[in-house]
Amino acid sequence: MNKRAQAWVLIIAMTAFFTGASRAAEDVSLLKDMTSVIALLGLPCGQVVSVKRLGDNDHIASCQDGNRYRVFLNAEGRVVAQKQ
Known about the structure:
The chain has one domain. It has a four-stranded antiparallel sheet, with helices on one face. It contains one helix and four strands. The chain is elongated, with a radius of gyration of 19 Å. Strand 3 and strand 4 form a beta hairpin. 11% of the residues are buried. The protein is of the alpha+beta class. The chain starts with a helix and ends with a strand. About 6% of the residues have low confidence.
């Protein structure tokens, strides 16, 4: 393999590596954000352990205690959490 091809392989590998790391950081941040939102709305949860994205500003959050909530923005632009 020539040097130019090796350089491109390295660039692609590094891009894939750092993109994966940033996604993991986003996931942790999203879990913390959802935990905070649910707590601020006064709903029982403990800690959010997984989040499934349904659309823009629309998620299903699964809690440590077994509760699940759909967290989304309503028509007035307020954050709402509905038990699922």
